[in-house]
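Data availability excerpt. The first of two example chains:
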Amino acid sequence: MSAYVKHISYYLPEKVLTNEELVQEFPEWSVDKVAAKVGVNSRHVASDDETATDMAEKAARKLFEESGVSPKEIDFILFCTQSPDYHLPSSACILQDRLCLPTSCGAFDYNLGCSGCIYGMAVAKGLISGGIAHNVLVLTGETYSKYLHPSDKSNRSIFGDGAAACLISTEGFAEIGEFSLGTDGSGANHLIVKTGGARQMEATGLSVPDDEGHTWHDDYLYMNGSAIFNFTLDAVPAMMKDILLKNSIEKDAVDYYLFHQANKFMLNTIRKVCVLPKDKYYVNLETTGNTVSSTVMIGLRDCMDAGTIHEGMKVMVAGFGVGLSWGGCMLKF
């Protein structure tokens, strides 16, 4: 049985952090320098009492309102987050109750970042193909801002908070094709929050400089930018070739490429290395920043609203990052 994207909605927090505000904290920077390097002019930041679960709920409610689909029609919910409300229970179980989904609905969280929405689509397709579910609600939500050290100007300029909701069903506007998925856990330390889990539950307060002169704080998010960049340039071209092969499609037949919105520099480098035309390639982080697992869904919805992506198009979508993990597939509109 085929699986389709039926509707996409998203939610962004009300609070906005602008480059001008960041520069006030870091006067050695200029507004133009921040925007030129990462492609972000402003980003949404969750309030102190707002969690990824709260945002995912709002995205899901927006989806039900916009699509006319009833919560009672959902028979499985998947929630991608690295910012759960609790170690247990699963936030997806909490969302099942908040959204008034049937108690016969399956529900679980999965801990992935930048490739998360692609993995969610793959699992949802498997559930539908196996006859286990008919309407799968894939939610993504992240509050990386809560993991960032106040002095971490680099990551604070890149990441924004947000959530997305995608309904995968037996019918819809975009048929989901074949997937290319991959993992290289040897690079796990390149993007990590070391404390808070079972390995190291208590905060350590420790920090050390890395080879790039950035500070690694155990209790906050650490990203080795150059290592992530190199990993991406290795993984994405090979993933693209695999997606084309598995979907029996030539590169020139792809109408549009919408990849995880990591940062402007990385996206432009990927485009050049993969020799992709500018007019078929999505780059738009100006007002959202890198929302981790939600960037692809936000981009798809915005492109459909703008008419950039429309019926009859073949669109390659992909995510890559923390894990290290990557994944992509073709969508046939």
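And the second chain:
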Amino acid sequence: MNLSTAIIEQLAEHLENAELKREAVAKITDAHPDMDWEDAYAIQDAIRRRKIARGVRIAGLKMGLTSFAKMKQMGVSDPIHGFLTDYGSCLDGAAIDVGGLIHPKVEAEIAFVLKHPLKGPGCHIGDVLAATDFILPAVEVIDSRYENFRFDLKSVIADNTSSARYVTGGQMRSPVGIDLKCLGVVLEKNGEVVATAAGAAVLGHPAQSVAMLANMLGAKGQEIPAGTFIMTGGMTEAIAVEAGDHISVRYQHLGSVSMRFVGTNNH
């Protein structure tokens, strides 16, 4: 670690205030070019502690940058992880207020809920599927706190991987008998198809994303507890949304999830 505890706490406050006041800020590596990966996760952990101290409940975990194309684009070999909050949770059909967001985008994902804990290292797809209670469709509304959605990887880890809102719906299904690699998804914006994908877009298999999360946390001596809700990362590219937009995502075997965006656009 290259940053002092005081600077880590200061940056956590800075980024969380950007979220709470919905004010975009410059990426933090501009001012702290020597920041390393451990520093980035330490800032994220400090944001998490700040939220818990205010009574926010941590609702789950999420993986980011899980598509090979996105990793190649960002020049990284590993995905990143963050956490989900109770206030981020939205029900199927929800009206999501853009007034609380800076520049929201949506991406379609497959979420897992565990019935057994998972601990790395050495966790693999088979372990994940055996530990899974059910899968369900979810749409993540990401909202980077950085100006013009421009950031580097360390900055985005510190910013809790752009986590903002997420919508769950459709049907809960056991993963048994479903070919998650080939599970197809169609994302529509205002009735027009804007993105299509299959489960294989996420690290070749969505369960691989959960295995990687277990291994990344295992390296820090942590496990994923039973009952944890995990978003595995975008199958589709991130699609920008604003007030007045309606998003509907259809999932093979799992039904559909929809939401609309309301409020005043921040333009």
